[in-house]
Amino acid sequence: MKMNVFILAALFAGQLMYGQGYQAGDKAIDFRLKNVDGKMVSLSEYPDAKGFAVIFTCNSCPYAIAWEDRIIEIDRKYRDKGFPVIAINPNNPEVSPKDSYEDMIIRAREKGFPFPYLFDEKQEVFPVYGAARTPHVYLLVREGSDLVVKYVGAVDDNYRDASQVKEPYLANAIDALLAGREIEKTETRAIGCTIKVKN
Amino acid sequence: MCASGKIPGIFCRTGAVLLFLTVFAWPGRAQEPDIPVFDFSGIRPFLEQTDDTTYLINFWATWCTPCVEEMPAINEIARKYRDRKLSILLVSLDFPTHIETRVIPFIREHRLIPRVVVLDDPDADRWIREVSSRWSGAIPATLIYRNEKRDFYEKSFTYQELETIVKLKLDQP
Prior knowledge:
The structure holds 2 protein chains of 2 kinds. Chain A contains 5 helices and 10 strands. Chain A has helices at residues 2-15, 62-78, 101-111, 125-129, 169-179; strands spanning 27-28, 33-35, 40-41, 51-56, 85-89, 117-119, 133-134, 136-143, 146-153, 192-194. Chain B has a single domain (34-171), classed as Glutaredoxin (3-Layer(aba) Sandwich). Chain B contains 6 helices and 7 strands. In chain B, helix 3 crosses helix 6 (159-171). Strand 10 of chain A pairs parallel with strand 5 of chain B.
């Protein structure tokens, strides 16, 4: 019975998982993580950026792969407008071998990622952001010395078919920011792969 | 007894036998599982049964490692509690193009007892919230309910954990 109580407590904790992490309006932390080119990257090194599309993604998740090309497109479209993509792999390669740093380098090269693809090696960044899955997008805006979260969620509303997208959530959010409009949807959900941590 | 729902008896044992016969028996290809593909409106009735059966709905995919790892536990629960009022549905989020190449081989390899359906509905932002306000969209995710009492878990289970909560639901007065 004691065991059961313990298990139930653990399960209850599991039930409360959603809604921890950042929501629109929260201040986000900067980080310093290793890029696939071997250099360390942090957001403070982009003085010209108005903000960032920080996207937790990985090599191994079919949903992450399904959205890869559209993430590249978003970076191409918005980098020069002040909103570059910063991709972060949060997975522990001991649990998910395809998400090793070496495999990240290969994937970035294969796809020609135009954005940094960083490794959250100590798995310290994604829990602060509250990323629950890959891909998981956090749109940040610089306000003075702060980074403020403006949108959390999916890239768009159709993982399977880019041509069938009705609402490009992330692009809409960036467009709204650029135009000085309110963001219509500040939080969306999508199916994704759990972030792989060691038990 | 199976109460009248939108799909009467879809989950109850006699219904399951009928379903087994209609869905799983493919003429000329014995034991070849036929996997129905639904959009969310096709899944919704499974989440809204109102009889005194305990329903366990597991969202999974063959590409999801933690889902695959917990599947033997779910299957064992299905086997061990087959004489209780427990109905398990495995909602696969595999791409429909992978049903023949991945889902069916997986069902065979693991000798899955529960019924498997594929959910193919890209507008996930809408239906994820309908399943549970607590679901971020990561899988595995499991909804366990009996009448109004609903529990939602965005995690993978060990056998012991799952049995604890299933028994609790089954033994609820």
